[in-house]
Amino acid sequence: MPDRFSEQALRESQAFGVRPIPLLRPLGWLARGWRDLWQCPLVSLSQGALMAAFGALLWWVAHERFWLLSGTFSGFLIVAPVLATGLYAMSREIDLGRRPGWHTLREAWRPRDGRLIVFGVLLAFAGTGWVMCSASLVTVFAPEPIRNPRDFLFKVVLNDASHLFELWLALGAVLAAPVFASSVVAIPALLDQPPAKLGVLGAVFTSWRVVLEHPAPIALWAALILALTVIGMGTALLGLVVIAPWLGHASWHAYRDLVTRRRD
């Protein structure tokens, strides 16, 4: 049974092509995402405000449990692609010459497509797994209890006698890399293609093909996403109001630029 599902998913993925792109093409995705952001700013920025508010909620819940907070915020990056579904839908409408609005978000978030729900649940499990791993690592190996960002900075990041911070970063990279590779174009593809043409596993295979054929541009794209997200978090989360929808719109253009339409 699993082999049959894998074979079907592989056939679905192979029905799509992967376009060649130059190394610096991700900068073009950011430029087009910025353009889309201001095509319908109120709706786009409202999505960013919700993501920033969610980040503030995480901070409020866990600010005195930084061993948990560090993993929670990085886990938030894992599930962010599914939270941007409405932004992908808006950019698709703009590509089609239509004007997106609140109705676009309502249609995108109606739970009619089980594939997006399944993918969201899988990302949630991955994010939860990282939170637990991060919390366990910091709690067990930190030289002293870590209660707040200052403790994490001085007792983990700047602690010359310990390599805990390097280990924490390495573990996060090992866990995050396959998740990012599986989702870099998967959710926009699922939004864009009907269930009869593309399933969850087929979308994941397509995303991996994109990464394997363009490792350098995708690595640059991941670095840009990480850098902008850190900037957004470093501005007391206010920067996420703009950065989160900007990256969401740009991710749609990454999918459209990398993946060709299905050959009918």
From TrEMBL:
Protein name listed in UniProt: DUF2189 domain-containing protein
Signal peptide per UniProt: none
Presence of the UniProt keyword Membrane in the record: yes
Keyword Transmembrane helix among UniProt keywords: yes
Transmembrane intervals: 42-61, 67-89, 116-142, 167-191, 196-212, 218-247
Provenance organism: Pelomonas caseinilytica
Classification lineage: Bacteria, Pseudomonadati, Pseudomonadota, Betaproteobacteria, Burkholderiales
Pfam families from the UniProt entry: DUF2189
Keywords: Membrane, Transmembrane, Transmembrane helix
